[in-house]
């Protein structure tokens, strides 16, 4: 059977789809698993050995062009984990016989199987809702998957070169101070500077600050703030897969709930993560796909006094590592 899995949004959202894609392949290894993804997730999708083929939707091609592309894949069944009118119409025009999606928005009229999940109630995490959708289709499917879900043969080699180039001799605690996606909570740069200096004072770990390719200005700002400190500043210009290989070797990844957090959890790195104080942005909805025992979550309150109290708690927790 040729199965299409659709998730065309951001990095963290796509990572929440990977456990479902894995179990669909494991359910029957003869299934051909095709994914429809956004351009930024193409390389990561191709790095997963449980994905057989990757189709990219850049949002600029017409729905007719995209539907013809999918039609050529002879897809028997599609599962759309997050829908919009565009991807729904593409699948309809492609003539995919069985089309499953959560019953949300007007887009559901283009599916012949709409599953009521009520994700807004946040009764489980996003990746768990994705797994539950697969269960609706294949009632006897095993939803268990390995943790970490993604491993690389050459990650140690990449880390050894990184360590040599940057004179790293201790385990690494990484801080990713930027954020994007749906994250609506983070510490400010003054607060990050404080916890980074706390970590440096311990002298137990090497400290790495990571930045996305579009965060050059932020990287320069943190370099200025920590000018005389032994800190490695890493601008991720070699692609998401290379970055995943690197951070899989870190002891801890500290960040807000953004795509890089989900990537760290995917590759088995311990995470210390900050979430918004709402159901939509909460750890309950956006916990990582990795081992929960390796995840430490903080909900950042809006109240100034409570936020300060939590900040002191975070400082103590980091010092205890």
Describe the structure.
The chain is α/β, with parallel strands linked by helices. The chain is globular. The chain is built from 13 helices and twelve strands. The longest helix is centred in the C-terminal third of the chain and has 16 residues, at 304-319. Strand 10 (252-256), helix 11 (259-266) and strand 11 form a beta-alpha-beta unit. The strands form two sheets. It has a six-stranded parallel β-sheet, with helices on both faces. Strands 9-8-7-10-11-12 form a six-stranded parallel β-sheet, with helices on both faces. It has two domains: 2-137, Glycogen Phosphorylase B (Rossmann fold); 155-319, Glycogen Phosphorylase B (Rossmann fold, 3-Layer(aba) Sandwich), CATH 3.40.50.2000. The chain has helices at 11-15, 18-27, 42-46, 63-71, 85-94, 126-137, 155-165, 189-202, 216-225, 240-247, 259-266, 283-286, 304-319, and strands at 2-7, 32-37, 53-56, 77-80, 98-102, 113-115, 172-176, 206-211, 231-235, 252-256, 270-276, 295-300.
How is this fold's topology laid out?
Elements: E1 2-7, H1 11-15, H2 18-27, E2 32-37, H3 42-46, E3 53-56, H4 63-71, E4 77-80, H5 85-94, E5 98-102, E6 113-115, H6 126-137, H7 155-165, E7 172-176, H8 189-202, E8 206-211, H9 216-225, E9 231-235, H10 240-247, E10 252-256, H11 259-266, E11 270-276, H12 283-286, E12 295-300, H13 304-319
Parallel strand pairs: 1-2, 1-4, 2-3, 4-5, 5-6, 7-8, 7-10, 8-9, 10-11, 11-12
Helix pairs in contact: 2-6, 4-5, 7-10, 8-13
């Amino acid at each position: 059977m040729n199965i299409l899995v659709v998730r065309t949004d951001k990095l963290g959202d796509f990572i929440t789809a990977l456990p479902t894609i894995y179990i669909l392949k494991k359910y029957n290894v003869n299934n051909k698993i095709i994914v429809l993804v956004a351009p930024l997730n193409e390389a990561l999708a191709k790095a997963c050995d449980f994905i057989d083929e990757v189709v990219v939707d850049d949002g600029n091609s017409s729905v007719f062009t995209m539907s013809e592309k999918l039609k050529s894949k002879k897809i028997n069944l599609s599962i759309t984990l997050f829908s919009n009118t565009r991807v729904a119409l593409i699948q309809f025009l492609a003539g995919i016989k069985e089309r499953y999606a959560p019953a949300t928005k007007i887009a559901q009229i283009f599916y012949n199987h709409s599953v009521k999940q009520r994700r807004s109630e946040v009764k489980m995490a996003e990746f768990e809702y994705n797994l539950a959708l697969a269960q609706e289709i294949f009632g006897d499917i095993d939803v268990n998957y390995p943790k970490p879900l993604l491993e690389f043969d050459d990650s140690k080699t990449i880390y050894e070169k990184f360590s040599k180039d940057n004179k790293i001799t201790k385990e690494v605690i990484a801080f990713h101070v930027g954020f994007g996606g749906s994250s609506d909570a983070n510490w400010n740069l003054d607060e990050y500077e404080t916890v980074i200096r706390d970590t440096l004072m311990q002298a137990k770990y090497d400290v790495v600050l990571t930045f996305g390719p579009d965060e050059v200005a932020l990287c320069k700002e943190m370099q200025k703030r920590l000018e005389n400190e032994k800190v490695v500043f890493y601008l991720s210009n070699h692609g998401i897969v290379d970055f995943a290989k690197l951070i899989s070797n870190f002891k801890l990844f500290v960040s807000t709930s953004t795509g890089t957090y989900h990537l760290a959890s995917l590759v088995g790195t311990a995470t210390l993560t900050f979430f918004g104080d709402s159901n939509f942005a909460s750890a309950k909805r956006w916990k990582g796909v990795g081992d929960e025992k390796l995840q430490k979550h903080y909900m950042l309150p809006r109240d100034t006094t409570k936020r300060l109290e939590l900040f002191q708690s975070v400082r103590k927790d980091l010092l205890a590592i």
